[in-house]
Specification:
By secondary structure, the protein is of the alpha+beta class. Helix content is about 50%, strand content about 15%. The chain has 14 helices and twelve strands. A hairpin with a 2-residue loop joins β7 and β8. α2 runs antiparallel to α4, α4 crosses α6 and α5 packs antiparallel against α6. The longest helix has about 30 residues. The two termini are about 35 Å apart. About 40% of the residues are buried.
Length: about 450
Amino acid sequence: MIRLPARIRQRVSLQPGWPSLALLAWLVVIGTVTLVPDPSLVELAASTPVWCLVCGSMGTIDVLWNVLLFVPLGASARWNGWSPKKSIFLGIAVSCTIEALQATVLPGRDASLSDLVTNSSGTLLGVYAFGWRPLVLQPTPQQSRRFLVGGLVMWLATTGVMAWGFAPHVSTGTYFGQWAPSFRHLGQFRGDILEATVAGLPLAQGPFARSSDVQSRLGHADTLWARIRTAAPPTDPAPIVSLADDRPTTLLRLSQAGRDLVYHSHTRLGQLKMRDPAVVLRQAFPSRAGVELEVAGGRTARTLSVWRIDGAGLRLTTVRVSPHWSWYAIFPVDVTLGRATVLVTGLWLCLLMVPLGFWTTRTAAQGSALIWWTALVVGLLVGAVAVPLVAGLDTTAPIEWAGVLVGIGLGALISRRQALTLVRGAARNPSPIQTATPD
């Protein structure tokens, strides 16, 4: 058996059991996420500047997930008894190793200063999050009150930003029509495009003579329509027709992904380098080539739709634009909106509400319960009803409300079970209750 020198064993010491398993498991997760080559993205990776901080069209999402990826690493290192300095050094060393491998031997992976900075920041956040775990897991009523107020502020801020952000972005400058455009990271549509329109105006290949005519209609009639003759389904998502500006930014796009039809709409969130909404109609295209049909997508202030018309009639998918799509705006991989979107949003809201239910229950346990539960209800109503109405959206859907109520209930249940456990423990072993303080 190989035995490391004593000095090295001391520096990389692991606690037996769960702490060491957590650290090693998360190193495997990091390696799996960051060290898998992707030859299809070689050209895109080569175009990414090494010194950029928010890189590419999804730069904000990359920054967020690069930070979150390394938070468990810093926390698990501290769980193993490593000092904060040693834990932070581990995160920096792992990040430097990954960036060196991506830059030299992993095709399609882009190394950048942004990755190094965000990974190191995530490790630092994990180190301090581990130190503050007593405050988070067993806050005093006074601390719970502060968390509750902060949580409600975050709820209202996030809902407001999403309601604002999912509105269409109408840029200035020259607009261009694109028929079967070619992009290095997308497939190529091989069918025939017979005619196309945008916002009711003819969409030809090339620049518009009067871009202002289109600009005046966008935001009110963002409908992109085309009559096509199909080809064999592409292996990669292939744009059919699109509207772009001279930056260049794709403002509207209809794409074929296998046999699915996808409609993309550029929004204010896209300007912030987050994910634009894309709604999908499953099995919209026939499996055989040479079929003539109409494809279209559009949005109103409250809905996103995509549809197909052929000899069999109309097929349509419509989703309600929701200010609670924050999960979608930051999702790390390509995903489309469809019939299951409202269910996913309900589950997301359930997770977000668990801490609010927990903090409200702990705060109310020390008195003024009616006041704090009323504050919670008012905050939820403002975010779920008032904010959408002001933004011109529909109010929260019943399934989303169900997620809110279930999350609040779970948080309250966790708080009550925790309190009962503490009471039973104190009865078995009477001792002064210590106020939760960070390490």
